[in-house]
Design a protein that fits this description.
4-stranded parallel β-sheet; about 425 residues; about 10% strand; de novo design (two linked rop proteins); alpha/beta
């Protein structure tokens, strides 16, 4: 098993200066944009994306070509690139922004041409200072070359691109909260309906919101073909994907592979196994929002559908591995604390519930637990995500609240005895 380098090939070959436009062009950069604007019409571009079967790399996994087709007719439309990579354990968009920003910009140009858009925004996570500078520099270089601005590539098309640095709020990774933030409002999610971005997005105009990795894949698809892209990976999970591997592995990092191998094979091949030859106790397959799998489930295939069928999600592509010595109650509390801190506070079940979940988990982990705490945990979880099923049902506008429920339901489903072992024995006896 080895990597298949489509998105990261350029940066691997030019590790020191892959972010510069002259280096990017020497490696065939911007040829896809020139080809698209001079040889294709917008409909042909969208058909190529549909043929590729690429699905969004931001978490939801929605077919990209279909999403582009949903854009409502309007004279004014926008493209917004969601570069607010804030999911714990996820760091793959960062390298694309920092080390190959022109690949993203070329993808933006092609996407805007295909969707009849003349203004795009790149919304970068607040903590990503260096990546934001790199993207801004790349945009300025593209303007100087005439690839952005008026009459790009002498095509008669205009395209303005604005780089916007967020303020470090996780909730702005949710597309409608991101749009609120871009408009200068509080980063709070909007109700859908009526505020589906493709119909009522930025400034109430039709808006495409796509992830960095998704749009960075567009130049390769256009330079080759949608069919070539679809031949990579497996049905339903085509192409390559950058997975962020972290936790108790020997070699953490970003690895670009075709989807379809097992998690166990991925961890052994690229993570070089578990530190000190320990066994896997649990792992998170797709970022902190995703339900956990146990060490006995390492044979699950790394595809969107296989992970979903097993009761979780591939999400942002962040694989977090926990070894046999991990205190899973503390691990769950760490994740819940993050979501409690990042709740925007708009929805009561999330604002109040995540804080209570954090307090109860802290009480159990510190040995001050009560016999009723397990039932109380599940009751609070049920008020946030009724039925505790996956995919989650919600009493909130966005999935942040149910994301805090995922680690707790994972604990109770597979590691309940570990939680019970932390309750004082006398409490359990008295309860009996």
């Amino acid at each position: 098993m080895k990597e298949t380098l489509l998105l990261t090939k350029h940066m691997r070959e030019n590790p020191e200066n892959s972010h510069l436009i002259e280096v990017y062009e020497k490696n065939n950069g911007y040829s896809a944009a020139k080809k698209a604007l001079k040889e294709n019409n917008p409909g042909e571009i969208i058909e190529e994306i549909k043929t590729s079967n690429i699905r969004g790399r931001g978490g939801a996994g929605f077919p990209t070509g279909v999403k582009w087709g949903f854009l409502a007719e309007d004279e004014e439309r926008y493209l917004v690139i969601n570069a607010d990579e804030s999911e714990p354990g996820t760091f793959k968009d960062r390298i694309l922004l920092e080390r190959d920003p022109h690949q993203l910009i070329e993808g933006v140009i092609i996407t805007c041409f295909a969707s009849n858009i003349s203004k795009a925004f790149i919304y970068v996570r607040g903590e990503y200072a260096k990546p934001a500078r790199r993207v801004q520099d790349a945009v300025e270089q593209a303007y100087e070359k005439g690839y952005l601005g008026k009459n790009i590539f002498d095509s008669g098309k205009d395209l303005e691109v604005v780089v916007h640095l967020g303020a470090g709020a996780y909730i702005c990774g949710e597309e409608t909260a991101l749009l609120n933030s871009l408009e200068g409002r509080r980063g709070e999610p909007r109700l859908k309906p009526p505020y589906f971005p493709a119909v009522k997005g930025l400034y109430n105009k039709p808006t495409l919101v796509n992830n960095v990795e998704t749009i960075s894949s567009v130049p390769w698809i256009i330079n080759n073909s949608g069919k070539d892209y679809a031949n990579l990976g497996v049905e339903g999970s085509t192409g390559t994907r950058i997975f962020s591997l972290s936790g108790h592995v020997n070699t953490p990092g970003n690895f670009e592979i075709e989807m379809g191998c097992s998690f166990g094979e991925f961890i052994d091949t690229f993570g070089k196994g578990i530190r000190e030859n320990k066994s896997v106790k649990a792992y998170i397959p797709g970022g902190a929002s995703a339900p956990w799998f146990t060490g006995e489930q390492l044979d699950i295939k790394m595809t969107i559908d296989d992970v979903a069928d097993a009761g979780s999600m591939l999400g942002s592509g962040a694989v977090v591995v926990m070894d046999e010595d991990t205190n899973l109650v503390l691990a769950a509390k760490s994740i819940v604390s993050f979501f409690a801190h990042e709740s925007c506070g708009q929805c009561t079940p999330c604002r109040e519930g995540t804080t209570w979940l954090e307090m109860i988990l802290d009480r159990i982990a510190s040995g001050r637990g009560r016999a009723s705490d397990i039932d109380l945990l599940l009751d609070v979880c049920d008020n946030i995500s009724p039925g505790l099923t996956w995919p989650p049902k919600m009493t909130t506008i966005c999935p942040l609240g149910p994301s805090a429920v995922s680690p707790i339901t994972s604990l109770m489903h597979s590691f309940r005895e570990e939680v019970e072992s932390l309750l004082p024995r006398k409490v359990l006896i008295n309860n009996e």
